[in-house]
Design goal:
globular; 25 helices; binds magnesium ion; alpha+beta; 9-stranded mixed sheet; binds adenosine-5'-triphosphate; about 25% strand; 9-stranded antiparallel sheet
């Protein structure tokens, strides 16, 4: 069965069991501080498990893009080394939110695998949770009893907490699970070793394919378990592993998910897959990583120096390094695989097709820059090795190796390999110590501690009313304390309803305050969105937690932010109009003071284009276009009407569209009622963010007034300095510049003439001491003229010892020039002489043996220096 059909069969099977098919959520997570990337199918439904909001449908199925490279689920080190762990993989899943539980989950999984996919029952094993005393949890006999109806009892194995109690992270929903494993070894191997003994033993042909999780607990901050409001089913099956089983191959990389990429790598590098272990690992790493990186870029996450972007950069660098070391690729090549990937996955995941050019460009540039890093690192390492050898050592200091890694991005594995090729070693312990030290200090800087929510009202679900109102009477549903080094102690408060906009979609959160009936006021310093809830940040809690409060949004800040948000939409429209429809939004930041918009475009936006863009936006402002808002559109309907959505954003079934004239976008942000409220729009900068991505920064409304007031103040100041010229200002300044240039020229000529006279006088003043023509003089010429003068004299006079002391205010310089024959015959050294004489002017210097200079801060010492020079002859 082809992989496309495998995916389709799964979704249709559960659709027939009344599940709604939903698209994969983005792989990069935006509204959850505990998770950077989607690591399991359940992440996008976390708010349903936690009871923060209710699902539209209590049965759902999908294929979710997952990435396991950080946090609790990190498989990076395994990837490529083994044949069944990937960084990015698809997880096929079915969910029940408070609907069916263990019985259906187990029976349906079995039906799909054995009846539909026709996997031989004798290849399958299942595990159930054996219980755990320390957690006070019993054995899952319920699951056992359902399984025993379907499978021989000797194929039902007990599993411990590590394998059979699934947790998303350190905190959050969790529960016992039941896994399904396959044994795809040949008959001979099976006869020799019993498959049951290989389950969960990291055997590449006895692997877990499906995990059925029975969500019933919430792991609290103090480590305890609390029952969730309802019981849920969360299952996840590895799509690539399933393909391996159904396509009768022994490795995920031999399925049609990977073979096109591997053939392409063979073609590009000239190395064949299946020859040597090292090269095979490298080929698998590259085939795997190009998927992860491409999908992240399509999701809007570019490689960068921090956060999720840093993780993506590290994945790509791992692939580059394997290509560099084992496939001998010293030029960018991974980007070339994106075409194959797009052909192969573009139908199931259209984002790969539509963003292909951007992905190619970004990867290519990253490759080029990291390959440069590798070369610089190699040179550095070479010089370290030379020093080591001359010091008679065969072990590279761990701190040095770490510095190479940390400061220059040069990978540790490569350092180790290169050293070992020369019979040298790296001090691994020293490296580990240096690494730990750095990790500890960055962990300390970023550590946050979050207490569990204190829940005042269990049944409250929150309502957002901030599109229509800026104040409301509310009560507190729950609160908790968050402590971090950066922000100190803050409280997060959730109300039953709120007019406050929580930071999301690039728009910053509202500020404001809450007020109790007794007049107690608490400032809300920021608002964030987290797992579908709006969380208000305060420095302290109100005195009374029960009761009602009035909450008030800072209206001025909100109005400025709304102005910038609407301006952002108009800017987006203008860019597509002026530059072309290839322009896609790649990120935005809407604050009250300014806005920022990143977009795909392959060259600098010219000044003429910027003017045109600005004019376009200002024309829409003058047209006084009213806001047309629709809060109840379906996603498909909105897109059909021409609304623009942002890829990598998570949209629900019901979307909101914002329309101003012909600009129409899916957007949850706050906007002005009429474009006239923006008053004016002004671009303040245009720059590059990454290869193929440009950034425009701009301002609107009263920020533009401030901007022009400031500019006109500067203008007046300049006019005043120029004594209010009657000519236009630019001409006056140009005239000044011309005058300045001609004066400079004149001065140069005068200095030359002065030096010319001086040369004659000086040569005449030479005294002969011990056969040396000695000249000493003091001058106020500038450094350049002194040097020219010295060399002129040296060219014309033999056996010369010339010293010039130049004073410039308090500063002093000494210049010594010697005929080259004197340097040899009398073993004189101008460098040594100036260093010695430099003491008189409280300075130091150096140079060559026949010409050297010293600078100091005591001009009064020049005379003494000249006298001392005479003594030296
Ligand atoms: P393993 O023990 O093999 O690492 P897991 O216990 O981490 O698996 P789960 O978290 O239960 O796996 O994920 C559900 C399913 O997703 C697994 O049964 C497996 O088929 C698949 N899966 C998990 N991790 C990966 C990975 N890194 N690459 C490919 N598939 C994976
Ligand atoms: Mg795992």
């Amino acid at each position: 069965m082809k992989s496309k059909q495998i995916r389709q069969t799964f979704l249709e099977f559960f659709e027939n069991k009344k599940h709604q098919i939903v698209p994969s959520a983005p792989m990069v997570i935006k509204n959850d501080p505990t998770l950077m990337f989607t690591n399991a199918g359940m992440n996008q439904f976390k708010e349903y498990f936690l009871g923060n909001s209710d699902p539209k449908n209590n049965r759902i199925t999908d294929s979710q893009k997952c990435l396991r490279v950080s946090g609790k689920h990190n498989d990076l080190e395994e990837v490529g080394v083994d044949t069944y762990h990937h960084t990015m993989f698809e997880m096929l899943g079915n969910w029940s939110f408070g609907d069916y539980f263990k019985k259906e989950a187990i029976t349906w999984a079995w039906e799909l695998l054995t009846d539909v996919y026709k996997i031989d029952k004798d290849c399958l094993y299942v595990t159930i949770f054996e219980g755990d005393k320390s957690e006070n949890l019993d054995r899952d006999t319920e699951a056992y009893n359902y399984w025993k109806e379907l499978i021989d009892e000797d194929r039902i194995l007990n599993g411990n907490k590590a394998d059979n109690f699934w947790e998303m992270g350190a905190q959050g929903p969790c529960g016992p699970c039941s896994e399904i494993h396959v044994d795809i070894r040949n008959a001979n191997e099976k006869a020799q070793v019993d498959g049951a003994s290989l389950v969960n033993m990291d055997h590449p042909q006895v692997v877990e394919i499906w995990n059925l999780v029975f969500m019933q607990y919430n792991r609290m901050a103090d480590g305890s378990l609390k029952n969730l409001p309802a019981q849920h089913v969360d299952t996840g099956m590895g799509f690539e592993r399933l393909a391996m089983v159904l396509q009768n191959v022994q490795s995920n990389y031999d399925t049609d998910v990977f073979t096109p990429l591997i053939r392409e790598i063979e073609t590009i590098t000239g190395h064949s897959y299946g020859k040597t272990e090292q090269e095979d690992i490298a080929i698998r790493v590259i085939a795997d990583h190009v998927r992860a990186v491409s999908f992240s870029i399509a999701d809007g996450q570019l490689p960068s120096n921090n956060g999720a972007g840093y993780v993506i950069r590290m994945i790509l660098r791992r692939a580059i390094r394997y290509g560099f070391t084992y496939l001998n690729k010293k030029e960018p090549f991974i980007y070339q695989l994106v075409n194959t990937l797009s052909k192969q996955m573009g139908d199931a995941f259209p984002e790969i097709k539509s963003q292909k050019n951007l992905i190619i460009n970004v990867i290519k540039e990253e490759e080029a820059s990291f390959l440069r890093t590798l070369e610089n690192g190699l040179a550095l390492l070479d010089s370290m090795v030379v020093n080591m050898k001359s010091a008679g050592s065969s072990i590279l200091d761990g701190k040095k190796a770490f510095e190479l890694n940390d400061t220059y991005g040069f990978p540790k594995e490569l350092t180790r390999l290169i050293l070992s090729e020369q019979g040298l070693q790296m001090d691994e312990d020293g490296f580990a110590v240096a690494l730990k030290k750095q990790q500890d200090s960055s962990r300390k800087a970023s550590a946050t501690e979050t207490t569990d929510w204190t829940i005042l009202r269990e049944d409250d679900t929150q309502e957002f009313i901030g599109y229509d109102r800026l104040t409301a009477d509310v009560r507190i549903s729950k609160y908790r304390k968050v402590t971090s080094k950066k922000d100190g102690e803050l409280y997060q408060i959730v109300f039953n309803m709120t007019p406050f906009y929580g930071e999301s979609g690039g728009q910053t959160g509202d500020k404001g305050y809450l007020e109790s009936s007794s007049g107690d006021t608490v400032y809300i310093i920021d608002t964030k969105k987290e797992n579908g809830q709006t969380v208000h940040l305060t420095k302290n809690l109100p005195n009374e937690l029960e009761g009602t409060y009035k909450v008030i949004v800072d209206a001025h800040q909100r109005a400025r932010t709304a102005s910038n948000h609407t301006a952002t939409h108009l800017l987006h429209q203008a860019l597509r109009k002026v530059l072309g429809t290839h322009v896609e939004q790649k990120g935005s930041m809407v604050r009250s003071a300014s806005l920022r918009f990143d977009f795909s475009h392959f060259s600098k936006v010219t000044n003429e284009e910027l003017v045109e863009i600005e004019n376009f936006v200002n024309a829409r402002i003058r047209e006084q276009l009213p806001l047309e808002e629709n809060r109840n559109n379906t996603y498909d309907q909105a897109i059909a009407e021409g609304a623009i959505g942002l890829f990598g954003e998570k949209y629900g079934d019901v979307v909101r569209t914002i329309k101003f004239g012909k600009s129409q976008e899916l957007c949850g942000g706050t906007h002005v009622n009429n474009t006239a409220d923006i008053w004016h729009f002004k671009i303040t900068s245009e720059s590059a963010v990454a290869s193929g991505i440009r950034r425009i920064e701009a301002i609107s409304s009263d920020a533009v007034k401030d901007f022009f007031t400031e500019q006109s103040k500067h203008f007046d100041e300049i006019k005043a300095i120029l004594k209010n010229p009657t000519k236009n200002l630019a001409e006056s300044i140009e005239a000044l510049q011309d005058e300045n240039a001609s004066l400079k020229k004149e001065i140069e000529q005068l200095l030359k003439a002065k030096a010319g006279n001086l040369k004659g006088d000086l040569m005449a003043s030479a005294t002969v001491i011990n056969g040396v023509n000695f000249i000493a003089t003091k001058t106020d010429l500038d450094a350049k003229s002194v040097k020219e003068l010295a060399f002129d004299i040296e060219r014309e006079m033999e056996n010369l010892f010339l010293i010039i002391g130049a004073a410039n205010g308090d500063k002093a310089t000494l210049t010594v020039i010697l005929s080259k024959n004197l340097v040899k015959e009398k073993s004189l050294d101008a460098g040594k002489i100036v260093r010695e004489l430099g003491k008189h002017i409280q300075g130091g210097g150096g140079g060559q043996s026949h010409f050297a200079t010293a600078g100091g801060k005591n001009a009064a010492g020049i005379d003494a220096a000249l006298v001392a020079a005479r003594e030296m002859v």
